[in-house]
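[job 4471] stage=fold_predict status=RUNNING
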Amino acid sequence: MDKFIVNIIHRPEMVPEYAEKVTGHGKEEDIGRKELLMESLDIFKTQQSIAHKNGLKTTIQMTYASLFNDEAVALAKEDHEKYGDEIALSLLGLPCEEFREKYKTKDFCIWMFSMEDKKSIVDDVFGKFKDRFGFYPESTGSYYLDADLVNYIKEKYPMVKCAVATCWEEGPKAYHTCNNSWYTFMDGGPWAPWIPSKQNVHAPAANEAEDSGIVAIPHLSRDLIACYDGNGSNFGTHPQNVLRSMCYDSKTWEYPYMYNLIDQFRALAKYNNGYAYNMMFVGPGWMNKMGRWEAPYELLLKSYEDGMAYYGQLKKEGKLDDMTMAEFADYFRANRTLTEPECALWRDILYGSDKQLFWYCDPYMRVCANMDQGGAIVDLRPYAAKLYWPVGIGTKHVTDASYPFLIQEKYRAGYFTHYAGEGTVRSAKLVHNGEEVDLCLCRTKAHFSQEGNTRILTLDPVDIEFYDLTVKLQTKLYFEEGSSRIKIERNILSISDPNAEVEINEYMVACYGTTEYSEDMTGITLSVTDGANTETIDYAYKCREAQMQGASEAVAVVPQIETRVSLSCEKKDAVGYIKEGYAFSPMFTLGYTTKLKDKEVFATWLNLAKAN
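[job 4471] inference complete, writing structure tokens
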């Protein structure tokens, strides 16, 4: 029977984000204001009560500020004894008078501090927790935890086994929808629980030597289409996300989207050996008595009650297991292997389109294929590099914790570019008598299957119509567990003229970066080789090209992100090629061309490795 697990995480933030300005009504800032503290605690009590009323246990992530409040500590102890709630520790909710007095800062994101301050803060917060409860927590978390911080926590506090460690696709898209003021860039991580590597929290560990020792969970379960296309803060299983996005009926206060989103996460068991996961991680700030995001308090309260009631009903029906974070970490370790991928064939449940994305994540890559673009790869993160990426004050990345991409259609245009040049995408073109059709223009649907350790995505055939010829073509993508490569197969099912042949051009346009802004491509090396001979281009924005018949591999080495990416094929008469971009189109292209006839199949592999 499929297993659907939910983590419900509450944090008694005594000084919730945003709330001081609301409760202060224009008064001078005072994060110790009694009204603020009392209302925050009242909301936390309400959230706990709603969960327990529906037979659900929670993880109480105590904030630093709450550790100074006797009532908050007593409540946590009481609910632990009565309901089995886990008492854990959040590294959110740092701001309070005691914290600001000691650290002389208004910073509150733990990963943005200097490493020296991170260690000091962790020791302060963990020490205060031990003073109040007599033990250290088994779970912790934040919006994001960088690898250095996780490694320090695990070394100093080895009992920690679970942590909220990233916020899925919380990058430039979220930044822009917050008036360019939300400096938390953490794109490119997993959307579901994983075991992070010691080198980079986003990249799952490939073996025991890389295992950081914790199970990481995402901050909220996001809509894997709406969040990718738009602002992630609007589309998640936190009821406030649904209200913030206005995805509800303003007259009836009903929100079928919220239930559909939970159900779509339940359905992911089909692609993950019967296992599915969902989480909700909330503080009291959004349930403010003054209302939030045009929603009155009554609607905020109702949405939370309804969400908890739905989880409670699923539990009563035997369709849901509610676990604490520590319990979940034990389950995950016992039932998932390090190389086991996370898969999600996700359909649009918000806008009424037929759009479908396939997400794949393992220790070597995170990939998104878009069926509205013929199954083209539109997002690719090369986890195989296990890129060490220190974050915070004193590093090169004070605010940008994202894992770099090689392909990213939202930040590097994808197929549909506005002007000259090309955007990043992995697709194919068919050519006949001077006519060219890109598979990005061929909408299709995908079907998931699994054979042994290989996950297979089979796309519905598409008809490609030239002036005097019609070709029916089918695409299959193969993700072999532990291989760090993707096999892409194009099968010519039929041609209107059985004697005709068409040229196919398998290509990958790529670059590197974490935002919309282009990076310096100098230093990238492109090469094409047949094993005996090699043609090389050192990237200098000169539009140069090279090709080779019988090439075994077309390669790009990107030293900036320590990544080696290549396309390879076994067809002896195929021509491998490389292309250098130019300043207005700062990309590189790897590809193969060959001729195909009726019933012929052409396979290429996309390969990822860490560059030496």
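[job 4471] summary: The chain has a mean pLDDT of 94.
[job 4471] exit 0
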